[in-house]
User: Fold Proline--tRNA ligase from Aerophototrophica crusticola.
Amino acid sequence: MRMSQFFLPTLKETPAEAQVVSHQLMLRAGMIRQTSAGIYAWLPLGWKVLQKVAQIVREEQDRAGAQEMLMPTIQSAELWRQSGRYEAYGKEMLRIKDRHDREMLYGPTNEEMITDIFKTFVRSYKDLPKNLYHIQWKFRDEIRPRFGLMRGREFLMKDNYSFDLDVEGAKLSYRKMFLAYLRTFARMGIKAIPMRADTGPIGGDLSHEFIILAETGESQVFCEKRWLDLDVLADDPGYDSDLKDFFAKYTSLYAATEEMHDAATAPAELETARGIEVGHIFYFGTKYSAPMGAVVTGPDGNPVTVEMGSYGIGVSRVVAAIIEASHDSNGIIWPDPVAPFHVAVVNLKADDAECARVSEEVYAKLQAAGVDVLLDDRNERPGAKFADMDLIGIPWQLTIGPRGLKNGVVELKRRATGEKQELPVEAALAKVTG
RNA sequence: CGGGGCGUAGCGCAGUCUGGUAGCGCGACGGUUUUGGGAACCGUAGGCCGGAGGUUCGAAUCCUCUCGCCCCGACCA
Assistant:
């Protein structure tokens, strides 16, 4: 992408309405535009990041055996009456009426709908287990939306639903998602810690919130420091195992949110921090399958009400949470896997023939190599270019200027560390693509 | 929903108390000089002062109503 043509409305000053750093930086970096309280349009840069995050979620869901589908945002109130939640849900649910005065709603979640779809088609235990997901916009009419995308009203969520014949199967499905979530966040370059969550009336120990540590987090969390040293991607036993050992290892360390924290049972040496919830997994048995009649015929010919679980990742919130966890005073520092561009080629002097020639050549080579590259070919002053690049947080900045070219070198800067080195063009290319 | 605050140019703000023909900085546009960390100078454009009523000779400013947004609390990916 050429910056001279890219729709990237960056701001020098921080808009007054933004209080938290992720909101401020997303506005300044030209990623989003608020259209109503808690509702945002995603501009090209933001949309690129959102899609990268969604794609990692998608790949890990697929890898864990879940299947992608897409359910609508608008649902019928009828479905929710079957589960009893239409009355129970309260004002967070946006209720609307169509032209025939039929009661509809903008879905805050999809348990009812997926259960309805499931029961229509699945009749035999032989069809189990099943795990279905979609990545779709949700709406929850929060009393007070705030913190930009951290607590919006409309948000993009990956939600999936597992269906099993028995509790043991449901627990295995749960452990698979537990692993999938750890892998998902690890791949995004962030440390999300699973913390025991309230299971409400269901009871048991099968609900975890996945929390990212960040100073601006909404809730107080407590965990053992050793958590931060675990390497999930290295520990991954694969989905063919029963995952019991893995699950045991990753739930043995203490980690709890404020609500679940119990100083009496907690170890003495505890890390206290602020946390942002980015995912939540939940086993809930027959809470929906029973009232909605999701029943299959078991091996013995008798009907079995299926065991269900649901699993959510706040995809749009993750984007904000990553910024909360990874920024400095100059702007965003994207972890490589979710960065909107891998490298920015900064032509320091756009009207200099040699600078332009080398920049274009580097740009073309990187594109040919399949690298997501942004070329700053604007006729701006160097300071403005550097400031923009730091602001939008591209992991590598490859600066091409007349001073360096005279000596046959370009400057390669790593956004995360600020480390700069002068290299011949080919060496810089190798470093960026390697 | 309770409590607090704010709506004036694209963005950040002053002006409101004490009514008198709307201003500053940044940004945009044109020009000249510049060019390795958000340049300098000259010039230009841009505002029903959120909206509707009212008071007044006269309202951004006072009164009433309304809409929107932000912050603090109870809810949540």
